[in-house]
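Annual report, structural modelling task.

Input specification for the magnesium ion complex:
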Amino acid sequence: MLDLNSNSTWLSDDRDVSISVAGLDGVGKTTIINKLLNEEITETYSTYGINQELVNINGLKLGLTDLGGKEPFRNSLWPSYISRSDALIFVVDATKEHQIKESKKWFTRSLKWIKKDSPILVLINTWNKKINQKEINEVSNLFKSSSPRQLIECLNVSPITGENLNKTIDWLANTIITNLISTGVSVESFVAYLKTDNGIIEARIRTPSVINDTEGMFPVIRYKFASGNESILDYMTLNGRQVVMAADNQTSCWLMTNMIDQNKEIKGASLLMKLLTEFIMEIQGLRENKGANISESDLTGYLMKYLIDNQSFWSDKEMPLFEISYLDNN
Ligand SMILES: Nc1nc2c(ncn2[C@@H]2O[C@H](COP(=O)(O)OP(=O)(O)OP(=O)(O)O)[C@@H](O)[C@H]2O)c(=O)[nH]1
Ligand SMILES: [Mg+2]
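The model returned the following structure:
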C-alpha cells in the first residue's frame, strides 16, 4: 500500500495531491510522518520552516508538507502552504492539556485558509500514554464542532505503538481519492480491444450522456497494439478531457474523463494511467488461465468486476452502459 521508497525530492509537478501537516511545535508531526514513511521512530529536531516528502499510496502521488509548528512559522508559512493544499492533517498532543486551547485557535485559523470542502484529518497524538476514550472524545468534539460544513475526521494515534497509523493511511487513500474524483475527475468512457482466435473484441463502457458528445472523437482514438514484448502508455488532453491509452501486443484500451475546466489543475493523471496498466495486467492473467481464446462472457464478467472495483472513478449521477461486439477484421 504505502510505497516505502518514497522519493524525498520534491517536484511540485510530480504529485497529484498536496497535503499540509500542521499543528503546534512538539506535538509530534515529524515523528508521525517518519513513522508513516520508515516504520521506525527517529529522533527529531524541531522543523525549521518546512519539510516535504513525496509518498505513493495506491498509485496516487501525495506531496506531504510537514510545517514547522513554532509561532513564527505559523504566521509566515502556514497560510500560504495550507491555502494551496488539497487536504489538511492537523496534529494535537493529547498529553499536553494546557496546549489544547492554543491548538484549537490555530486549527480555526487553518480552516479559514484551506480550500472549501477539502478533507481534514485531526490526529490526536497520545504518544504511549493511556488516555481514556472520554478524553479523546472531548478533544474530537472540540475540533469537529469548529466547522460543520467541512469533512473533519478525528483519529487518536500513537507513533510509539503504531496505533491507528494504518487507519491514517487508509484515510489518506480513501478520502482523498474519493474527494479528488468527486470534486473533479471522473471517467466517462472506457474502451478495450482484445485479440482473440475469433477476431478482435471491442468492449465499451460509458456513461449515457457521453455517447453523443464524444462520438466525434472515436476516429481519433483507434486501437493500437504494441509489438513484441513492448507496451504502450500514452496520456494526452483532448478538448478539455484527459485521455489515457495503454496496450500490450494483445490488449489495447483507453479511457476518457469528463471535461475539465481549462483553468483547473489537472489531477490524478498517474492514477488514471495505473487503472489502465492494471487492466492490461489483469487481462494478461486472464489469458494465462483461458489461453488466447478469451470469450465474450469471460470479458463481460471481468469488466463487471473491473467496473465495480473502480466505481469511484465513474460519475455517481449515471449508471455506465456496456457494449461488447466483434470488430470487422478488415
Ligand atoms: N508528550 C510527549 N512528547 C514526546 C514523547 N516522545 C517524544 N516527545 C517529544 O516530541 C517532540 C518530537 O516531536 P516532533 O515530531 O519533532 O514535533 P513536531 O510537531 O514536528 O514539532 P515542530 O517541528 O517543532 O513543529 C520531541 O521534542 C520530544 O521531546 C512522548 O512520549 N510524549
Ligand atoms: Mg517537525
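Residues 23, 25-31, 44, 46-47, 68-70, 93, 95, 127-128 surround guanosine-5'-triphosphate (ligand 1) (CB under 6 Å).
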